[in-house]
């Protein structure tokens, strides 16, 4: 249970500190390949989190 709270608090911290426009600007600054990789990782992470909470 403590690991879940730690993960959720880390996710909440990231969501509050990184705004959407700032994140998009950083992705374009880093390059298209890195941006695509980050988007894929975020999508996989969201799917993984949803599957964990449904069990």
UniProtKB/TrEMBL annotation:
<feature type="transmembrane region" description="Helical">
    <location>
        <begin position="34"/>
        <end position="51"/>
    </location>
</feature>
<protein>
    <recommendedName>
        <fullName>Phosphatidate cytidylyltransferase</fullName>
    </recommendedName>
</protein>
<keyword id="KW-0472">Membrane</keyword>
<keyword id="KW-1133">Transmembrane helix</keyword>
<keyword id="KW-0812">Transmembrane</keyword>
């Amino acid at each position: 249970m403590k690991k879940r709270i730690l993960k959720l608090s880390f996710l909440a911290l990231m969501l509050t500190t990184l705004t959407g426009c700032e994140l998009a600007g950083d992705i374009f600054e880093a390059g298209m390949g890195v941006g695509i990789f980050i988007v894929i990782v975020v999508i996989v992470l969201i799917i993984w989190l949803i599957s964990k909470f449904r069990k």
